[in-house]
């Protein structure tokens, strides 16, 4: 069944253990931690062809390929990464990793605290985009990668790519910032808080220590995902996909599932509650809220972006109302104010924020062309 002809094939996650303590932005310190990652393609002799793919809110290290012959769905950005794909693994060595605080192998709230042997739970410290970048730097050092050919990501992943160019400008040649923003709007922070409140007020949350009680705050996690999912889609896509279709053709005059869209959202919520950790969801949404390159320096975005030396490709999507194209244009303006080389594309697409995950031909052709030029310029 697998692998498909243009797939990276069967891949095996790896774990990097770090014993050097890391001081986090929150003021807390982790004495040690693990990062789980996958790689695709071959690192060249001078290690100049490495690409770091940063994941979004519910993403992880499994970016492309399959973990086994039996796995039905490939990694979350498989349509973008692989042999002959826009991010061509015939040329590039691609790294995907699960961020610190995650729930797919990297150290996070559900991991055992070495001091107690019990899950960290509510004691796991807050993490920020900048913290993730520092852990990614350590992984790059471990792999002997002095500078990335490209750091790329969509949504929260794009924020990490931006942060890389500010914090470590000499270590990024190109940055792809897709469907992202230089900081959340008040509306986005509000959505995140409603989602968090759904989890925090779930009776099974137990202040974050639900592991000890043998339960999962499913109701809260389910509601949080349902709310988030609504914001990832556009009104047009939801209308086209579900309209006002009833499951049983007649009104039931109750509060059960009557409309197809209700059924879909509950399915997505249940699926998410089965696979994601509630504490990780809380941490990831707070990392989104906290990201703001201008905050610590009390300067405008142009000044905050002034350290960046990379070349940029910034992409937005017309129907993305969560991270609207205007937010991407803020990034472009800041880069142009600093005389950086930046290409910008606003893709006409119907899928809303999730468009960055879709195999849109125009979008993929654009990324493919940029990556080929990048490879040529880097002598890859």
Q: Care to describe what's here?
A:
The structure is a single chain. This protein is α/β, with parallel strands linked by helices and 380 residues long. It folds into two domains: 14-183 and 292-378, Rossmann fold (3-Layer(aba) Sandwich); 188-286, Rna Polymerase Sigma Factor, Chain: A, CATH 1.10.1740.110. Helix content is 33%, strand content 15%. It has ten helices and twelve strands. It has helices at 129-142, 156-167, 186-200, 218-232, 235-241, 260-275, 278-290, 301-304, 325-337, 361-377, and strands spanning 14-18, 22-23, 29-30, 33-40, 50-54, 81-82, 87-88, 93-97, 148-154, 172-178, 311-317, 342-347. The strands form three sheets. It has an eight-stranded mixed β-sheet, with helices on both faces. The protein has a two-stranded antiparallel sheet with strand order 2-3. It has a two-stranded parallel ribbon with strand order 6-7. Helix 9 links the parallel strand 11 (311-317) and strand 12 (342-347). Helix 3 packs antiparallel against helix 4. The protein is globular. The model has no long low-confidence stretch (mean pLDDT 96).
List keywords for this structure.
alpha/beta; Rna Polymerase Sigma Factor, Chain: A; two-stranded antiparallel ribbon; eight-stranded mixed β-sheet; Rossmann fold; 380 residues; 10 helices
